[in-house]
Amino acid sequence: MGGAAWHSARVTAQEALKAALRDHLGPAARRQGYKGSSPNWRKSSTVGDWAVVNVQSSSFSSADHLRCVVNLAFAPEPWLRWEAEKLGAGMPKSVSESLGLYRQRLHPEGTPESTDGWWDVTNEETAHLVVADMIAQLDRAGWPVLESMFSREAMMSRLQDGDLGMMKRSNFGVFFARAEALLLMDGGPSDALESQLAYALDNVMPTQRDHAEQFDSWVRAQAAKAVI
Predict the structure, then answer these.
(1) What's the pTM?
(2) Are 108 and 133 in contact (CB under 8 A)?
(3) What is the arithmetic mean of pLDDT over 132-156?
(4) Taking 90 as the threshold, does the pLDDT of residue 13 lie above it?
(5) Taking 70 as the threshold, does the pLDDT of residue 2 lie above it?
(6) 81: number of CA atoms within 13 Å, CB side?
(7) What is the arithmetic mean of pLDDT over 51-73?
(8) Strand pairing partners for 55?
(9) What is the rounded CA–CA span in Å between residue 43 and residue 51?
(10) Over the range 188-219, which residues count as b (16 or more CB within 10 Å of their CB) and which as e?
């Protein structure tokens, strides 16, 4: 009986993490201007850009042991406009981390470079230690990085430097050209826009040609509307 009573009252790893996120990461996020609750906090700009901080728990976690990681995302309004065009009715009502143009992941302190390290939660004590480290990593490489991208000039500079977090221009040239075209289109037709659209079409895989042409036509139409 005593053992059964203890088992029913004990705090699971999931409950411990949820409480620590509510009590500590939530207030830290609100101080940065983010809204929401575990596992997602979001911040938007007046022009419709969105930053997202997401705490992802492993689907292989148990009541005794939970693994988690922090995902970051930034989605400029022109990128979201294209996503809405592409997805149609499938466009989520809330901006999720998966919709980010920029996507990155934060890891526990001491995680080796290029290693996908996750935090481990087993009880209330480890949950508090984990969330404290999450906040430290967000202070160092989360909040300030996301905040910088609300500047369109800084976002364009990041694109031109070939850095979208987990995606680099060296491996995703067409993706970067399309992203740059999206940030240029509201300025109307230009040589810079033409250059990115031409690169995206000239280097697309044959199997994706139809999609590439749809993108090209849509961006050109948006650019034309910008000067009317």
Answers:
(1) 0.92
(2) yes
(3) 98
(4) yes
(5) no
(6) 17
(7) 97
(8) 70
(9) 5
(10) eeeeebeebbebbbeebeeeeeeebeebbebb
Report the alpha-carbon distance of residue 55 to residue 25 in Å, rounded: 10
Token pair of 23, please? 């009590």
For residue 32, which amino acid is it?
Answer: Q
Q: Report how far residue 217's alpha carbon sits from residue 87's, in angstroms, rounded to the nearest whole number.
A: 16
The whole-number pLDDT of residue 114 equals 86
Sign of torsion over alpha carbons 142, 80, 197, 187: negative
Query: What value, to the nearest 5°, has the Cα angle with vertex 102 and ends 176 and 84?
Result: 80
State both tokens at 149: 């991208």
The pLDDT, as a whole number, for residue 6 is 39
Tell me the DSSP string of the chain. -HHHHHHHHSPPHHHHHHHHIIIIIHHHHHHTT-EEETTEEEEE-TTS-EEEEEEEEPTT--SS-EEEEEEEEEE-HHHHHHHHHHHGGGS-SS--GGG-SEEEEE--TTPPTT----EEE-SHHHHHHHHHHHHHHHHHHTHHHHHHTTSHHHHHHHHHTTEEBTEETTT-HHHHHHHHHHHHGGG-S-HHHHHHHHHHHHTS-GGGHHHHHHHHHHHHHHHHHHT-
pLDDT tens-digit series, residues 86-116: 999 899 999 999 999 999 999 999 999 889 9
Of 22, 19, 58, 57, nearest to 41 by C-alpha is: 22
